[in-house]
Design brief:
Chain lengths: 407, 114
Amino acid sequence: MSAVVVRLVGFGHLDLAEDIVHDALVQALEVWKFRGVPANPAAWLMAAAKNRAIDVIRRERTERRFAPEVADLLSTEWSLVPTVASAFEDKEVVDAELRLMFELCDGRLPEETQVMVILKYLCGFGVRELAQAFLSGEEAIEKRLGRARATLQSAGGLAELGDAQRARSRAPAVCRALYLMFSEGYHGSHPEVVVREELCAEALRLASLLAAHPVTGVAGEVKGLLALMCLLAARLPARRDARGDLIPLDEQDRSRWDPALNARGLAALAESGAGAPSEMHLEAAIAAHHAVAASVESTDWPAIVALYDRLAALRPSPVVALNRAVAIGFARGPAAGLAEIDAIESLARLDDYLFLAATRADLLRRAGRPEDALPHFRRARELARNDPERRFFDRRLAECGGGIGHG
Amino acid sequence: MANYLYIFRGGDMARMSPQQMEENMKKWGAWMGQLSQTGNFKGGDPLGEGGRVVTGKKKAVTDGPFGETKDLVGGYLLVTAGSLDAATELARGCPIFENENGSVEVREVREMRM
């Protein structure tokens, strides 16, 4: 929705576009509070944004110059409404979103900031969610957004997608942003729910748009990303129990994995083909090993460890090293996994990382050392970000003889 | 039973993030649904921003009302309840209080009794 409005008012008026969309949303919600949410909220919001855009453009058109390609059409009353209306048609919306996505990944912005503005302008992330996603304070996020907006607004108009070289050079940043968005949904830090399917769905939607487009779809990375998302999303139905609590990979009922998404993911991975494998390819390949394995036992863990080795070479990070240790724990036994964790460089950076405590605890539990696992499960429970996670660790604590957690 | 008017002030969503809005909306839906199920709900709507104020003998017209968000009436609701206390208790469930500056004024609708 923002993308369409940006296209109308021009890339130089990002803040105005943001206001229009925000106002439309607030107005709609104020009515829904009293009247209930309508059956098709998305269509409703589109209509509200369209009307709001018409009002604002009418009011501001003597003061401002809007997007060059439509400025003349917006300047007269008889063409204003049809121009705005046609921009809100489905096909145009897709195009506007893709163009905005590439425009926001401006090389003058740090990659992380590119991610931030994509989440902000294309995915409706608020400052609070951005602060969560980037482990930063809300004030710092506001400042960074302000600086980013100033840089972006000096860029001029939205580029055509036909510029293949430009599209290719920006594809990695776009992929990374979508990857982060998906991860926030999949491993989310939301205080109430453990998975936010709407975020995963939105990331998958944008990745599908990218992959389906004749220009942007050719980047192997895009297909790799799509493959990864499909393969992970396929597990969602089995990833939670009836209560919404997390079920770890090794305890999931694999018959509940979505076969269509798995097939789509494997096909995308096969198409992602030539060229040096990107991080996305490697992660997708790891997910594919899980997708084709009937059980944890029959999973090709040595192959997964080898993929993690390559991933660690490409993107050295303690988090990748931790995941590698998990795979080693399955390939060569929990003791080997624990040894790998202790060998991770800059392990201190993960002190407050939930999955470090959780992984250590789980390896100790599987190594038949429940009493040693207890303190780590307690630590994991302290770091847990929502009730489903806390309940999960409570269950583990009980299994290890530690009773229900404290605090 | 008597009718009571809830006058909502503040509690605007303008400063909320989309996710907060969504959560807030769910709570409004639940609260309104509850009032409707229990038969307390009679009607109500949100009010648009701005508007006009007509004042005095000269019927002077000004734009407005403008003021602090917390002072502006954002909407109203008509409910039926057994007493002012009961109506007040119902109002306490309103999600408007998720927002620092939200308030609900509860007033009995005066009726002519013959």
